Amino acid sequence: MPLLENGQIIQDTWQIAVEGESLPTGDVLVPLARLSEGLGRNSDARLGVVLSSADDVETLRDALPRLDVVALTFPVFRDGRPFTQARALREHLHFKGEIRAGGHVLPDQYEFLLRCGVTAIDLPEGADPAVWQRAHEAFTVAYQPSILNEQAEGFAFRRRLA
Amino acid sequence: MDRRNSRRDAEGTSVITANRLLDGRIVWLAADGQWATLIQDAKLFPNSAVEEALKACNARAQEEALVGIYGVQVTETDSGPLPVTSRERIRAGGPSVHPDFTPDWHAPHPAPYA
Amino acid sequence: MSHSPSAALPVGHYAYDDVDRTFLKQRVAQFKDQVERRLSGALTEEEFKPLRLMNGLYLQLHAYMLRVAIPYGVLDAKQMRTLAHIARTYDRDYGHFTTRQNIQFNWIRLEDTPEILNVLADTDMHAIQTSGNCIRNVTADQFAGAAADEVLDPRVYAEILRQWSTLHPEFTFLPRKFKIAISGSQQDRVAARFHDIGLIAREGENGRPVFEVFVGGGLGRTPIIGVRLRDDLPEEDLIAYLEAILRVYNAHGRRDNIYKARIKILVQALGTEEFLNQVNAEFAAMDRARYRLPEATVEAIRARFGAPDFAPAGNAAEKLAAQRKADRAFDAWVHTNTHPHKQPGYCSITVSCKPAGGIPGDVTSAQMDLLADLAERYSFGELRITHLQNVVLGHVRQDALYDVWQSLEKNGLGEANIGFITDIVACPGLDYCALANARSIPIAQKLSSRFANADLQREIGPLRLNISGCINACGHHHAGHIGILGVDKRGEEAFQITLGGSAGDGDASIGQILGSAMSEDETVDAIARIIDTYLSRRTAGERFIETCRRLGTAPFKDAAYATA
């Protein structure tokens, strides 16, 4: 699947663990249930975890230093829990790696995701990256602080968006 | 969709309704396949045929710029189909508290976009 | 010249600057783009719906309905004229004031909406987050900044919350809608305990405000009185603490059942103590410096509010007293429709939008223009919409009341019924609303006509009558001394009566259902018999709600279901 990162479409080199099969060699994303299996892998390849929107990110606390990617999943775009998961990963757990958002995500949510700490989007096949870029540039100001620590815009909580 | 919109007896007669995407106004599927603003022009379906007709309408919804397509059970009267529920009678006739706002109401002074 | 720097600022609400205006125009452009993507099929109806709702646009029974935000219920004369212009140009010449201090237009076209939003933006208005599962318009005391009993002006904090919640990156796809109310008076006029979060501000020991925080209240299908989470939240922690509450809610609120998705259900399920523990854990773990609300920020926002430049009282009070003596009808109106002001020589006026037999909360574009004119001439250009669907002129000189009253009288806005049985709260009901089970307006009109006699209303005294067309309770029926709930009986409309509800003043209670549903006319007759029972059984000076509490529902139930 195409991955949108910093306004660029890049080819996703990560593999996703397949249920009932042993983990592949190379960079792999595992579901939370197979995290210890992934951590126990004897490999230099990178490891990431895929969370469902119901998972508690707190359970990753010990494993996070060994993870390169946390992938969040929107079962439907209206399920806003991944926003809180992303923000908690950054603000509470100080995760510095990549946070992806996938599943049913709308371009209209892109800027919110970025401001909650998401760094890459698993775009649906055939998605128009121009629409996502437009969504990213739609606003030049926000009205509250975010984990991106944007510059103040005048007074109060206003922040200047890049 | 509102569960009330799919309440239909096994027997009986229904018409098919929707809202137009662009202006939100209520329309009724007429015999010629067009969507009319007056329920009097609506085509009658036996309830047993409604589901299939809805399927066909829903397949064309985007192209015909319609939303919320569903069937409305009616009784046949001299003045045309009359919905059996008060909700659908209000939809068909306009708000009861503004008798002037019938489905074919027009602004006395046309708005600039008209 | 001793011109104060705030002279040019609008009185009563935050003054936008270029940054805020640019933001509104960007929001309009975004919506225009979303509409185009919907028309092209790039967005499905399912995807588009929440996006249009977050711009206040519903698809109702007959057409689209646009709900325009009136932040903390305050707007200026210019903005009121914009609303009149929208009613005339894009709707059917009227608007409807809501129980959340907003205004709704009932006959809007989707294709006109970007243009309408643009027109609104030209006078610093919008429809952002007036619907959808996000933080809604923050409501405040309708006498804010004017009431004699006020401790501090809540509007500055309502504005801070409005800005903070606007397009909040984390809280725009919540399990369900989220409503915040704030009052700066110990007389709770905002129904703080019936909100997802209710805040009551008072002065703290260091001279800065502290907030009493209630959470998990609400009406709707499961009416619950909110629980107190904090008694004295410091000003600087206000935003951080609300972030903590919202985070717990966003992470754990139910998403599997729309009827159990409000925060009140989560608070009930966890229990107050566990909910509080989770909020406190979040509050302790978060980066508090980031969310701190410094005094300087509060003052920066406060500096964007204009304040009325009051004139000395002079002999205003004497003049008013003489006018009241000379005109009995005027005297009755002053008695019911004015509220004490902190400034000598002034008072606040509540303009009734509940004429006998009329539609509660509906005003024509001509009436909106008149209200704008009156605000400009007599109340520093400021207007407020109340959660009881009336309009307040906040700061009127006592010696101008007679002129104002005469203008209102001539234009169908002079009803002397504030707080009386005909000051009915009603949602739009099945005449307009796609969710409703029964019509709210016709029964309101019948009751309002039935009790139209001024002497009878005075005799009955203070009585809150609230009508909702369905269990979602937009008409706040549970909070009415008498509540009416519209239900669907196999496709026909019917009504249940509730008794003994109350919204505020520290005695919030939820109305009890009297019995099975009746037809519209039966319900009107039943309420007349309930009133007769009250009049015959009350003790001297006892208000309706007090008699209800003393006697319980039984005698009223007997009266309601008594057949001739």
What is the string of SSEs of chain B from the N terminus onward?
EEEEHEEH
What CATH first level of chain A would be assigned? Alpha Beta
Structural class of chain B: alpha+beta
Q: Kindly estimate the percentage of residues of chain A that lie in beta strands according to DSSP.
A: 15-25%
Please state the structural category of chain A: alpha/beta
The name of the CATH architecture of chain A is Alpha-Beta Barrel
The rough form of chain A would be described as globular
Cα separation of the termini of chain A:
27 Å
Mean pLDDT of chain B, to the nearest integer, reads 91
Question: What Rg of chain A, in angstroms, do the CA atoms define?
Answer: 16 Å
DSSP helical segment count of chain A: 4
Widest sheet: strand ordering of chain A = 2-1-8-7-6-5-4-3
In total, the number of strands of chain A is 10
Biggest β-sheet description of chain A: 8 strands, mixed
Q: Which pair of chains has the greatest number of interface residues, and how are they split between the two chains?
A: A-C, 42 and 44 residues
Summarize the structure in words:
Chain C: InterPro entries: NIR_SIR_4Fe-4S, NiRdtase/SiRdtase_haem-b_fer, Nit/Sulf_reduc_fer-like_dom_sf, NO2/SO3_Rdtase_4Fe4S_dom, NO2/SO3_Rdtase_4Fe4S_sf. Chain C: Residues 64-121, 339-410 form the Nitrite/Sulfite reductase ferredoxin-like domain. Chain C: Residues 131-283, 422-559 form the Nitrite/sulphite reductase 4Fe-4S domain. The complex is a heterotrimer of chains A (162), B (114) and C (564). Chain A has 162 residues and is an alpha/beta fold. Chain A has a single domain, classed as Alpha-Beta Barrel (TIM Barrel), CATH 3.20.20. Chain A has helices at residues 35-39, 81-91, 110-115, 129-137, and strands at 2-5, 8-11, 15-16, 28-31, 47-50, 69-74, 98-103, 120-122, 141-142, 159-160. In chain A, the strands form two sheets. Chain A has an eight-stranded mixed beta sheet. Chain B is α+β, with helices and mostly antiparallel strands and 114 residues long. In chain B, strands 1, 2, 3, 4, 5 and 6 form a six-stranded antiparallel beta sheet that branches. The radius of gyration of chain B is 14 Å and the shape is globular. Chain C has 564 residues and is an alpha+beta fold. Chain C has four domains: 11-122, Sulfite Reductase Hemoprotein, domain 2, CATH 3.90.480.20; 139-302, Sulfite Reductase Hemoprotein, domain 1, CATH 3.30.413.10; 316-410, Sulfite Reductase Hemoprotein, domain 2, CATH 3.90.480.20; 425-561, Sulfite Reductase Hemoprotein, domain 1 (2-Layer Sandwich). Helix content of chain C is 38%, strand content 17%. Chain C contains 19 helices and 20 strands. Chain C starts with 17 loop residues before the first helix and ends with a helix. Residues 1-7 of chain C have low confidence and may be disordered. The interface between A and C is large, with 42 and 44 residues.
